[in-house]
């Protein structure tokens, strides 16, 4: 049993009962899709179409459809890959790291944030797979016997580490998310009226009945998955950063990359969570669950990680000068003043200056300001990856190979297309799956709501059973001091 | 086989927790408790043993780590040794990332598969439940009935411990 200070802000407002939670969350699953949702889905499907067209062009005509050249052999594809993977990290951070730190406020946002993780990783995976040129041979990245060639894969290569990191991350996030969904599917199943919904949610809920034994195991599994996902999420972006850091390209070959990338990932991820949550809470009328307090807390995390990123930018610059390496110094001078200066300064403005605005309470608690900030941060983090990748590659050691990069229409199409893919998946999730973890919200409801669902007051032990429930006889011989 | 159950319906998890303890103290065997969310202290109240899943998870992790090390050392060290960047064939520091990822992979998936298997959770066309409200807002204590059970006495016991309703239910397949 736990005690929560009465001065703490409630996690769920509006004096909800357990049944209210079920109603509020199941409402949009059970209701017919509304016009706003269908309009949003239509837009997302249009961009999904753009994605398929661009992929078709890439596969039919080859990688030449992209704006890459001999000098800049990696540009938008890897930029988008890192951007999407980074976005995904916030979901794992919320579901795993905040679980370990016993941050109860995560309960109402973890479901949607984990869904975001999974969809973001799907989008991310598109880029390396498409860049292979022959994606139907993608299984060559796995360590298969040499009937497929004459050699094994090279376990010394960071790109291969990426294969293992991303596939582990994706599958582990998926089972973590799904296991959390099972009890909520059972709730929807038991409320379902239509025959199709009954069967569909029965299949999805795996026969969950909510027995005490199962809950006990479920909690153990969640805790261990959280414990293992925490180092996993750190390892994934560390390995992504090693794609660059283990090479000898000026601007990439630095030891600061792993922590710098992880902080940037969480920073951009929280920005995306905020963008999505601000829309979801309004569209599905979940303002009592995703409160201003949640928004302010996420803003704070965004500010902390944004500041780490800012320090990393300055450190990089300092070390380039301090190292005395001419090429390293030129890479950074070129970033700030070279032909891509606009990308560098967009990155600096969006990522270093804008999160500092969150120090102001008025901005932290303002929905329009947070929404704008979250979009700016996402743009800034995209530019960060672009700056790191393209400005380092386009002018390295040999001036005769220097070149410029500009994206082709297909590059743009694939990027915008993955946004369509992401939002299509997210909208389908939001319609057919419970967007809030009902079971977890119910489990924290009593200790955090200003007016508990059945009892009044914060401490259940000192309340008499008469006030508790209907149907309890006044003389009930219940020993209420036993558990203190 | 048809089973008969007495279902004590509770409205509050703390009332439930004490009721479970008192009912068990009174010598009544509880078949199962169904709740909409996990309740802390329920394991002790029902006498459920601590799950051994963490131990299983650890060993799955050990298997994953051993597999990863074997795979990398065998392929790059023995089956087809290659000189890469002048490094030794068995360059352990370079093997750390894949070893870590496979440890996590085996640990998580092994544990989750074990969890679903031992809990007999798998997709079903139909899921019979004793009380549909137990996944919404009610806490249900199920007690299996036989010919000898005194239902009146049981009802009184459950009501005295705070049950808002006591129902009887028959299930053919459960």
From TrEMBL, chain B:
Keyword annotations: Membrane, Transmembrane, Transmembrane helix
Entry keyword Transmembrane helix: yes
InterPro entries, alphabetized: ActD
Name of the protein described by the UniProt record: DUF3341 domain-containing protein
Highest taxon listed in the record's lineage: Bacteria
Keyword Cell inner membrane: no
PANTHER family: LIPOPROTEIN-RELATED, QUINOL:CYTOCHROME C OXIDOREDUCTASE MEMBRANE PROTEIN
Transmembrane residue ranges: 55-74, 94-118
Organism: Hymenobacter duratus
């Amino acid at each position: 049993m736990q005690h929560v200070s009465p001065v703490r802000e409630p996690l769920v407002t509006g004096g909800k009962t357990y049944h209210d939670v079920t109603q509020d969350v199941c409402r949009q699953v059970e209701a017919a899709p509304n016009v706003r949702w269908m309009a949003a889905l239509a837009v997302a499907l249009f961009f999904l179409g753009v994605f398929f067209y661009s992929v078709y062009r890439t596969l039919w005509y080859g990688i030449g459809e992209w704006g890459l050249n001999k000098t800049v052999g990696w540009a938008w594809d890897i930029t988008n890959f890192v951007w999407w993977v980074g976005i995904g990290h916030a979901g794992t951070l919320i579901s795993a790291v905040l679980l370990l730190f016993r941050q109860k406020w995560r309960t109402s946002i973890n479901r949607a944030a984990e869904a975001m993780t999974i969809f973001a990783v799907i989008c991310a995976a598109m880029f390396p797979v498409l860049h292979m040129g022959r994606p139907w041979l993608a299984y060559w990245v796995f360590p298969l016997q040499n009937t497929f060639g004459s050699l094994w894969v090279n376990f010394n290569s960071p790109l291969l580490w990426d294969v293992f990191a991303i596939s582990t991350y994706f599958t582990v996030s998926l089972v973590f998310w799904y296991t959390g969904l099972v009890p909520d599917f059972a709730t929807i199943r038991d409320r379902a009226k239509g025959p199709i919904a009954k069967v569909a949610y029965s299949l999805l809920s795996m026969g969950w009945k909510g027995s005490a034994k199962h809950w006990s195991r479920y909690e153990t599994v969640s805790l261990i998955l959280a414990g293992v996902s925490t180092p996993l999420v750190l390892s994934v972006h560390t390995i992504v950063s090693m794609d660059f850091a283990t090479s000898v390209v000026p601007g990439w070959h630095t030891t600061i990359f792993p922590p710098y990338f992880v902080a940037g990932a969480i920073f951009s991820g929280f920005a995306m969570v905020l963008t999505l949550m601000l829309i979801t809470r309004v569209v599905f009328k979940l303002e009592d669950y995703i409160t201003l307090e949640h928004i302010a807390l996420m803003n704070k995390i965004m500010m902390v990680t944004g500041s780490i990123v800012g320090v990393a930018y300055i450190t990089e610059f300092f070390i380039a000068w301090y190292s005395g390496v001419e090429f390293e110094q030129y890479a950074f001078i070129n970033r700030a003043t070279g032909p891509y200066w606009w990308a560098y300064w967009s990155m600096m403005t969006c990522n270093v200056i804008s999160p500092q605005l969150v120090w102001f309470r008025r901005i932290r608690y303002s929905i329009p300001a947070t929404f704008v900030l979250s979009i700016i941060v996402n743009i800034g983090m995209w530019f960060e990856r672009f700056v790191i990748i393209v400005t380092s590659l386009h002018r390295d050691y040999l001036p005769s190979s220097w070149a410029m990069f500009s994206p082709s229409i297909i590059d743009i199409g694939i990027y915008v297309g993955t946004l369509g893919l992401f939002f299509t998946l997210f909208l389908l999730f939001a319609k057919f799956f419970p967007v809030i973890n009902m079971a977890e919200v119910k489990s924290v409801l009593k200790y955090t709501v200003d007016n508990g669902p059945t009892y009044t007051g914060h401490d259940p032990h000192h309340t008499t059973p008469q006030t508790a429930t209907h149907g309890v006889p006044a003389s009930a011989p219940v020993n209420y001091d036993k558990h203190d | 086989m048809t089973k008969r159950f007495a279902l004590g319906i509770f409205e509050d998890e703390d009332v439930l927790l004490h009721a479970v303890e008192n009912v068990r103290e009174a010598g009544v065997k509880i078949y199962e408790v169904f709740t909409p969310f996990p309740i802390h202290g329920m394991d002790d109240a029902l006498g459920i043993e601590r799950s051994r899943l963490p131990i299983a998870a650890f060993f799955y992790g050990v298997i994953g780590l051993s597999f990863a090390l074997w795979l990398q050392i065998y392929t790059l060290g023995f089956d087809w040794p290659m000189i890469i960047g002048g490094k030794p064939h068995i360059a352990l520091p370079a093997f750390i990332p894949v070893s870590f990822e496979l440890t996590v992979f085996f640990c998580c998936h092994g544990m989750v598969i074990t969890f679903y298997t031992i809990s007999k959770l798998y997709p079903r066309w139909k899921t019979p439940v004793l009380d549909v409200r137990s996944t919404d807002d009610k806490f249900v204590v199920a007690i299996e009935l036989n010919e000898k059970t005194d239902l009146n006495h049981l009802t009184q016991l459950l009501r005295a411990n705070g049950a808002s309703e006591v129902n009887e239910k028959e299930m053919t397949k459960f």
